[in-house]
Amino acid sequence: MALSHDEVLAGLAEIVNEETGIDTDSVKMEKSFTNDLDIDSISMMTIVVNAEEKFSVKIPDEEVKNLLTVGDAVNFITSAQG
Amino acid sequence: MNKKVVVTGIGATTPLGGDASSTWQALLAGESGISTLEYEWIARHELPVTFAGQAKVKAAEVLTLQETKRLDPSSQFALIAAREAWADAGITDFVPERLSVEFATGIGGVWTLLDAYDTLLEKGPRRVLPMTVPMLMPNGPAAAIGMDISARGGVRTSVSACASGTEAIANAITRLHSGEIDIVVAGGCEAAMHPLPMAAFASMHALSRRNDEPTKASRPYDINRDGFVMGEGAGALVLETEEHALARGAKIYAELAGGYVTSDAHHITAPDPEGTAAARAVIGALRMAGALPTDVGHINAHATSTPVGDIAEYTALKRVFGDHLKEIPLSATKSSTGHLLGGAGAIEAVFTVLALHHRTAPPTLNLDNPDPAIDLDVVVAPRTLGENVLAISNSFGFGGHNAVIAFRSYNQ
Question: Is B65–A52 a contact, with Cβ atoms under 8 angstroms apart?
Fold first, then answer.
């Protein structure tokens, strides 16, 4: 069962919150991981690893650099679920 | 003439309490921090030892979720103890380049390492978290403290097994004597209550197996002692040059008068039965303190409750103190806390400082039938100490490490 955009966003917000302490309400589609949420590269990789686990998807390393905003990640995960 | 070094802050999280003061109160009350472990992995692995000294207050109750996720348990304990000591010292104005950290661990980030290995085996390399290396590295605790308090004068880690905590404090003295550093946060930590280290220590028959009476298991100098009891937690001191402390009107607990380190070059685990190098460590610390063996009025012994270790330390002490040894009130506090390995010397330093500050030697538990081969004045109920006392705290570790620090009463 593929999850909706909103469900992926909610799940991703939980992962971001656990890793960084950023309030889940601040994790919005248009936010940039580095510029808006101030997430460093090691936290980004942790979020990727945890997202792969949570959503049962594979996020290739070369794809991670394209995930600039929360929306990029949500869209990628949603489509990767197939 | 070297600068005088003083203790201006203390912190601890131990099997007796979540801070230095509750730990000290429990220690004086004769409480034991040892209990049966309720973890499912005890039964799953059929461990031959089922008890230990667990931290009274879980680190997760004190730290933020992000701190507990990004720090190995050993670093979590270290941060808790160091923050308490730093707050206790009340330092608001300092030069970061003249502030350093000397923090010890015996084993390092063993939980992180072994958890990550389990993840690798079960889920593959992609699931191994990127923070694994900084979490497992043994300098993790010192680095976490250094970042927390903005120490830019160097952050170093002593690793000398069960002597580590005392060695870290001894190393702080030379930094403060150098004139380049005003303040050092020093101490040690350990969080090795994981099935692998427990199985490994049990395998070498170093641990007590008194599974049916955990609170009676750590019994230094008793004829029926059968090994040490593992403990977890951390201890920390804020150390300053006396001039720096006085200039800011700090409260001073005690003087750190000396510290010295030697090595046996005898056997990787067994202490040298002659105790020659251990005795030299005591003498070295006293020499730095400008003191004679007859000046010593209190000892916090290493005393882990192993059959050979307790005798070896006694032999070394007898070598230094001769007949005067019998006149020195000696406390073996591992009887209450268990053995915190790399954290042991640090919490025992806290106890020694508080013994001088409160003029009270803490009690030793479970000395029901003293070993006739050991002739000491072991303190079994809190005992009043004088106003001007020189005290030593000993630590010895696998690898033949001997570390001794000396504290002197400081009357403001």
Answer: no
Cα distance from N-terminal residue to C-terminal residue, chain B = 22
Residue B379 lies inside a defined structural domain of this protein: yes
- CA terminus-to-terminus distance, chain A: 9
Q: Which of A6, A40, A61, A72 is catalytic?
A: A40
Find the CATH number of the domain harbouring A29.
1.10.1200.10
Q: Tell whether B410 is covered by a domain.
A: no
pLDDT score of B1 more than 90: no
Interface TM-score (ipTM) > 0.95 = no
Whether A1 has its CB under 8 Å from any CB of chain B: the answer is: no
Residues 6 or more apart in contact with residue B10 via CB below 8 angstroms: B20, B84, B85, B88, B235, B236, B237, B238, B253, B350, B353, B354
Domain housing B329: 5-397
| Mean local confidence (pLDDT), B53-71 | 95
pLDDT at position A81: 86
- Any catalytic annotation for residue A40? yes
Q: What is the CATH number of the domain that holds B242?
A: 3.40.47.10
Helix (H, G, I), strand (E, B) or coil at B3: coil
Domain count, chain B: 1
Nearest C-alpha in B relative to A45 = B130
- Cβ separation A20–B65 shorter than 8 A: no
Q: pLDDT digit string (tens) for B253-305?
A: 999 999 999 999 999 999 999 999 999 999 999 999 999 999 999 999 999 99
Contacting residues of A for B133, CB less than 8 Å apart: none
